[in-house]
UniProtKB/TrEMBL annotation:
Residues in the signal sequence: none
Origin superkingdom: Bacteria
Coiled coil feature spans: none
SUPFAM superfamilies registered for this protein in UniProt: NAD(P)-binding Rossmann-fold domains
Protein name, entry field: 3-oxoacyl-[acyl-carrier protein] reductase
Amino acid sequence: MDLGISGKRALVCASSKGLGRGCAEALAEAGVDLVLNARGAEALEATAQAIRDQYGVSVTAIAADITEEAGRARVLEAAGAVDILVTNAGGPPPGLWSDWTRDDFIKALDANMLTPIALMTALVPGMIDRGWGRVVNITSQSVKAPIPALGLSNAARTGLTGYVAGTARQVAAKGVCINNLLPGSHDTDRAVALEKGVAKAQDVSLEEARAIRCKAIPSGRYGTIEEFGATCAFLCSQHAGFIVGQNILLDGGQTSATI
């Protein structure tokens, strides 16, 4: 399918690996020029070069911590006028509700709520002026069904979801569509980190921990970054102009809900 976005320009956050890289590669395959961001310069540049070589699109790589004001300013200056924004940030660490302090919540809110909002505030006005734009926020299945050990993520990402619910409907008539992608368990470094937690808690090997986690997924496996990226690219396409303010689960059926 021709997504109709060849020649558009996208900023994809946390895109040196994992879900962000999956989104970047899918957009590049559709002919979109990219601005990539991550904290680690070496991995980021390696990803940028791999995408240039494979897809022949323009790729600008900006190594910076986008959750900090100075880093975000650098990324926005390099990005300029973009048509597509994909926000993404690693989730806060798991733990117990009794262990978290106010500072822990502030860090989670900065990374997983306030940074995406700041990026939208900076870039959506330009999309409105040009009469077209797409924003995809990578959140989590936990906004549909909370994950007890991920209370910091549950709280921060649900706050972003509430913001998007109202904002998306205010800008839709201007040609700008804002939606959220809610990943479940995908084969990324984050999955490995959670497997280590299961292995420690249940005194099992990492292989056994993965099997335990996969057993809880109706599809019986983790998702791939390629299928996640393809969904993101579709939401950024010309065909998705009537999808507004939605929360789309990519979790292999793990979230048990009728609607």
